[in-house]
Structure of Membrane traffic protein:
Amino acid sequence: MRVFLFPAAAPAGGCLKVIAEIKKSAKQGQMGAVKVMAKDLIRTQMSNFKVSHKSQTLKSTQAMGEAMKGVTKAMGQMNRQMNSPALHKIMQEFERQNEEMELVSEVMGDAIDDALQEDD
């Protein structure tokens, strides 16, 4: 008879003794005692699982906090290194050049269309 709530987890040393007692009581036909000990074993395993799960959650939260701390530091460094007025000036120049290129493209397209129409 196996009594494990979480079969993937190996039972603790104390649980092995309880399991042996459960088996012994079952062989002797003491089913009342078996039920009580089995419920106690399940409660113990549940408690161990909850503690383990909370510990894992805390470790994950701590790791996430450390990662966020590093990201925040890197973002702060980038903000200090970035020259906003110069970047703004570059973007304005890009927009001006882009508009100029679009105008030249449009004039060239119109000129080509006119030239092709004259040939007809």
In short: The CA atoms of residues 108 and 114 lie 10 Å apart. The chain is about 85% helix and 0% strand. The chain has two domains: 1-82, 84-120.
